[in-house]
Each structure stands twice: as structure tokens, then as C-alpha cells.
Amino acid sequence: MRVLIVEDAGETALYMRRALEEAGHVVDLASEGPTGEMMARGGAFDVLVFDRMLPQKDGLSVVSDLRLAGITTPVLFLSALSDVAHRVEGLKAGGDDYLAKPYAASELVARVEALGRRYDGPAPSTNLKVGGLEMDLLARVVRREGKRIDIQPREFRLLEYLMRHANQVVTRTMLLEKVWDYHFDPQTNVIDVHVSRLRSKIDRGFETPMLHTVRGAGYRLEA
Amino acid sequence: MIAKLLAPITSSLRTTTFRVALAFAGMFAGFAVLLLGFLYATTVGRLGIEADQGARRELTELAAIWSGQGIASLNMEVIQRAARADQTLYVLVRPDGGVVSGNIDAVPLDLSTVRRPDARLPLDLQSAIANSFSYERVSPDNGRLERRPARGLFLAGPDGFGLFVARDLGPGVEAADQVAQVIWVGGAGVLAFALIGGFVAARQAAGRVDELSRTTRAVMAGDLGRRAAVRTVRPGDGDEFDDLTDDLNAMLERIDRLVVAARTSGDSIAHDLRSPLTRLRARLETALVSSQNDDDLRSGVEDALTQIDGIVRTFNAVLRLSRLEAGEGGQLAPIDASMMMAELAEMYEPVVEDKGLIFKTHIETGLNVMADGSLLAQALSNLLDNSVKYTHAGEVALGARRLGAGEIELYVADSGMGIDVSQRDYVIERFARLDAARSLPGTGLGLSLAVAIAQLHKGRFELADGIPYDGGIGLRASLILPGFP
Question: How far is Cα B120 from Cα B108, in angstroms, rounded to an integer?
Fold first, then answer.
């Protein structure tokens, strides 16, 4: 995956590059709004990562200009402003995801990969398939190796998200935001409990576990 | 010294109220003077015309005698008439200007300028010269000397003699004079009254404005608790100054709250982040200095990362709380509270059950509130987190119901250890941690956030006894919000 990072704080940018490169991605760096905009217009990137506050031209303006110019590459905003209102601003300007600073490297990588994945799949299908796990989105039926699995509506959405991001790390915050649409941080291990319930349904009685916990990061559904 | 004594007076004189009062008084007085002056002028004018006509009548009669019977007869007639006369004045003068007869002692005209007619021509009434003058006489009423206006005609004869006949303007003049006096006295009175009234009103206004400026100056000087005195007790009864005072006080209240929020959040951040930062530093130092192997070092760093996440969480909570308490944030829209509660229930049910507790819901349907759904969910999630954390046996219940007066209660009840009545005010303070809770992780901000969120929704937050269980009183934490039909 080719990623463009536009971030003015040099050390942070290098840290982000290292994290993404370790995950196997190719990273280009820019430190100013206009340079970042030029590179985004010219290069074939899979994901753009923009800091909100950039010298000369701020991230929000750059991204809304890119969108006006018809560039649809997914954008992840990074910002020290973490309120819901700021998040909404970022999404309105054309961002696809919003990550508040400070963040863990694993969170950044997971979100970048989720964004990159979103756009390279074929036309939306009514069936998802990961290894022996199948999901019929219309009939809302889940099967593993042909065996029907009884599943609650929310578990269905959770599993759908995991399947759409199969073989990627998905963080707890991502699940909270994308599956529950909550933008705060519960003190209890709510997500873990839900995931472990789901795991007991899809993995119990099968030889190989599919839903893995990635220590210090989140979860990964593997074929 | 004098300037100081005069200061309140001059400041009153500078006020708008005083200027407006003065302008109105001036306009009123001016108008009165104009109106009455016009009345005076027409009255006196009328009297003058009548006097002119009277004088001309007399002159015509006397001129007939003069031209018909000669100067001697005229003299006799003038003497007779002058003796009888009341309102009419006569003077017959010789060619040299000396008075022959009459009832005043001179012709009130500069006779040297009067052109003498040709001796061969007859008397010409048209050549009579009219004038206005005043003369002195002894008042018939009180015997005092008085000056009176009159209108006269002077006719110069071909024989060199001259006859002056004049009419007093009569008793009407007194009336007109009285009117004139009324004008002056009344005008002056009105002005004086307006000055005093305006001054008093201005004093009052200046006093109220002074109170406001004293307050603003005190606040500028740093006394943020200062408020302007409100004169009326009941709201809506006051004048514009009271409204202004109320607005000013409300503004100061808000500024005060913002400043206090900014200050306490700064203090709190310093206070609450200092100890975890100290711990974090110690942990890293220990890892660096005393690690025997890579595993020790690794676990030290991992601990440190966990601590940093906790610090960030606290930091975010403090920021969010400060913004909420400052009245910022929150997009209120009609939301279905029943649905929101059901979603929360669905989210928390496994968590509660995993802890070996019973989860119950008592959610009435169709409850609508004006709310920021995300904030409301956050408040309730905090309460649910608390219940899960502090309840070790029994149950946790999530409920939503209608109260009287259109209020809606959203609550979380548990069968935990509960909070003693005496400590319920304390626990909602920032960073409050009860002794029993200190060992458990938490920011100490969850309830403060719930309170701030309730207030943002014009509602309130209440703590009560929850579900009694095994000797414990339990806790019921409620957000009580105004319903939205």
C-alpha cells in the first residue's frame, strides 16, 4: 500500500513512517500543506494521512480542495483536537476517518489499512467469505464450514466489520466507532466482552481459531 | 476640592437624561414664548390700530375747527378737550416749538425734521405723521407714576402751528403686559422645573450607571465575584437599567464560570497529572536502572505505555469536562432516549453478565429528549462503568421512565456498596475518589462529567439508594432531563 503522510512535526512523521513501513507499506512524507496537496494530486496513493494543522495551508482546506478536484483517495485526519465537533468538521471536509493525538502506532496502522482496504474491493457483494466463514448479508445468516451459527444483530455487525477487514488488525476504538458509533472511551472492557462472545460462537467446536487477539493492538480475523 | 464636590453634579449634567430633559424644556419654553409672543403682538397691534383710528378721528375734528375757525378756536378746543381727556393726549405747538396748550408737555417727535407745508395750501390731513411712543402719567388707580404706550399723529399747519393728537393704547395694554409677564415667568418656571427635574432624573440615571461602571471596573481590576446591585426583586418588573444590570450580571456570571473552569481545569490537570507522571517517570527509571534482562525492560516499557494511556484518558476527560462546564459543545437535537438506552443495554448486558451479575432493563418506550445523543450516551456509559466496577454481587439495572411535569429519568441502579448520603455531594466533585474506590482504576471524573452533561441538557443529576442487596444500599444514579413531546 502506498501512503502519503503530511505532517509538519518531523519526529512524529518519521515515527509514523517507521510504523507503516514495518507493516509493509511504502510511505512518502510531506511537511507543508501545499506540498502535500501537490503530491496527493500527482502520486498514486492508496491512503492519505493529513495532520489537521499544517503550515501554509491547513489539512482541512487541502483535503476539501482535493475533493473538489475529484481526488477520492481515502484520507485519515490526525489531530490534537479530539471533540466530536472537530471529528465532524474533519469528515465534512472530506476526510474518511479521524484519529486524535496521541495515538498508538498500532492504531494508526490499523486505520490506514482499513481505509486502504475499503477502496480496493470489487463491487459490494451480498456475500462475505473468509476461509470457511460465510456471511449472507441479505438473509443475515452466518455459516462456518457449512454449519449455521446463531448470531445476535450486533454480533452480526461486529462480525461483518471484522470480515470486511479480514487479515487486518482492528483496534477496540475502531470497533467502538464503526460498529457501535460511540466516540468515547468506556472504562470497562466492553469491546473485549463482545468479541469474546462472538469468538465463542464462531470458533467453538472448530479446529482452527479464526478470531485472534493481537496483544496491545486489537483483533484480527484470519482465514 | 471644589471640583471634587462638583464632580457628581457635573457628571449628572453630562448625562443623556439631563440633556434630553434640557432639550425638551428648551423646546417647550421656546414654543410657549413664541405662542404667547404672537398673542401679545396681535393684541398690542390691534390696540395700536384702534388707537390710530381714535387719534385720526380727533385730528379730523380738530383740523376742521383749525381750518374753519382759526388757531384761537383750535386752542380753546384743545384746552377743553385736554381737560376732559382720559385716553387722548393733545399738544398744540407754536412755530418755534413751544407748547401752547395740551395735556402733555412736549410733542414726542423731533420737530426740526418735520417739513413745514407751504403757507398757501390748506391743511392736509394726509401729511400727518404717525408715531408710537410712551409717556409718563400718574396712574388713576394707585397715584403712582407710570409709563404708558400710545399712538399719535402730528399735523403741521400752514400757519406754522402744529397739532399732535395721540391715543393711549388703553386698558388692553395691561392685559397684554400681564400676558407678557406670564410668558417670562412661565417660561423661566418651565425652564427651572425642567432643569431641576432633568438634574434629578440624571442624578438617578448617573447613579445607576455609576453602579454599573463601578462593577465593571472592579471586575476589570480582578474582583470577578463582583456583581452590580439589582434594584427590583422581581424579574421583568424593572426598567431598562435593571435589564441592563441583569444582563451585565449574567455576563459576569458566565465569565466567572469560564475563568473558574479554566483555572480549576489547569489546577486539576497539574494536580492529577503530576502524580501519574511521577509514577510513570519512576517506572521508566526503574526499568532502565534495575532491569536484569530484556524481559524486565520490556515489561517496564509496557507498564509505562499503559500508564501513558491512562494519563491521556484523564487529560481528555478533564478537557471535555472543562468545555462542558463552560457551556461549550453539545449539539442538541430531538433523540429517542428509549432507543439510545436500549442500545446501551445491549452493549453492557454481556459485560454485566460476565461479572456474574444479573442485568435488568426497565425502559419505557417513546421517550424523547432534546439532547446530544453522543454526550448522553457517554454520561450513561460512565454510570454503567461505575456500576459494573463497584458491584460485586446482585444486579445492575438500566431504566428510563417518565416522571411528572414532563421530565424523563434515565438511570442506572445497582446493588453495590452504594454511597453514603453524607458523601453524595462529595463524589460528584472533580477527582473525588472514595476510599473504597482508590485501588480501582478510574479518573475520578466520571460523575463530574455526568453532572456537567445533565446541566448542559438543562437537567439534573441525582444520586439515591439503589437496589438493596446483602446489607448494601446500592446506588441509583439518575439523569433527569426535560422531556421533548
Answer: 27
428648551: which residue's cell?
B26
Please, which residues have CB within 8 angstroms of residue A181's CB and are 6 or more apart in sequence? none
Best CA proximity match to B81, nearest among B95, B67, B91, B68: B91
Q: Which member of B309, B313, B385 has the closest CB to residue A188? A: B385
**For residue range A95-151, what is the model confidence (pLDDT) as tens digits?**
999 998 888 888 899 999 988 876 545 556 788 888 889 999 888 899 998 889 999
Q: Identify all chain B residues contacting A102, using CB atoms and an 8 Å cutoff.
A: 308, 312
B382–A194 C-beta distance less than 8 A: no
From CA A14, how far away is CA B60, in angstroms rounded?
126
Which 8-state DSSP code applies to residue A43?
Answer: S
Q: B332 CB contacts (<8 Å, ≥6 apart)? A: B370, B371, B372, B457
**ipTM > 0.90 (yes/no):** no
Instruction: Write the CB contacts of A47 (distance below 8 Å, at least 6 apart in sequence).
Output: A1, A2, A3, A4, A73, A74, A75, A76, A112, A115, A116
Would you call B440 an interface residue with chain A, using a CB distance cutoff of 8 Å? no
A1 to chain B, closest Cα gap in Å: 28
Interface test with A, best of B280, B302, B303, B312 (most A CBs within 10 A): B312
**pTM for this prediction:** 0.63
Q: Where are the alpha helices (DSSP H) in B328-410?
A: 337-354, 373-390
pLDDT tens digits, B65-74: 888 888 888 8
- At residue A65, what is the residue type? D
